[in-house]
UniProtKB/TrEMBL annotation:
GO annotations of cellular component type: extracellular region
Signal peptide: none
SUPFAM superfamilies the UniProt entry points to: (Trans)glycosidases
Top-level taxon: Eukaryota
Gene Ontology MF annotations: mannan endo-1,4-beta-mannosidase activity
Name of protein: Mannan endo-1,4-beta-mannosidase
Species of origin: Haematococcus lacustris (Green alga)
Length: 117
């Protein structure tokens, strides 16, 4: 992934050394040694929208609007998607639904392009 994403994805193996991670020092969050303050949003629906055709157009719109509002942090759910017959984690706890994992990776990439965390 060629973005400044501050996330880890199992598909691209970003390491702490190769990405600029937000860290903690005592009770403060740090971004490159500077105090990090943020306003954020919960967007539980992102993985679902990225994973199933016809809904992924919403993702860049969301990130553009979030950036315009000054939101620096977006949190999404990477679990509990799919139906009981096709859960996102697959048929057992060691098998993942490739469509949902690819959707999550797409979100991380788009997040990096918009410089959210």
């Amino acid at each position: 992934m060629a973005t400044e994403s501050r996330c880890w994805s199992p598909l691209n193996r970003v390491t702490r050394e190769s990405a600029n991670f937000i860290t903690r020092s005592g009770t403060k969050l740090k971004d490159g040694g500077q105090d990090f303050y943020f306003v954020g949003a919960n967007a539980y629906w992102l993985v679902d929208a990225a994973s199933y055709s016809g809904r992924n157009y919403r993702i860049p719109i969301f990130f553009e609007k979030a950036k315009a509002m000054g939101l620096k942090v977006v949190r999404t759910w990477a679990f509990n998607h799919g139906s009981p017959s096709t859960p996102s984690y697959g048929s057992n706890t060691l098998v993942y639904n490739a469509r949902e994992v690819a959707g999550l990776d797409s979100i991380i990439q788009q997040e990096g392009q918009n410089q959210q965390h």
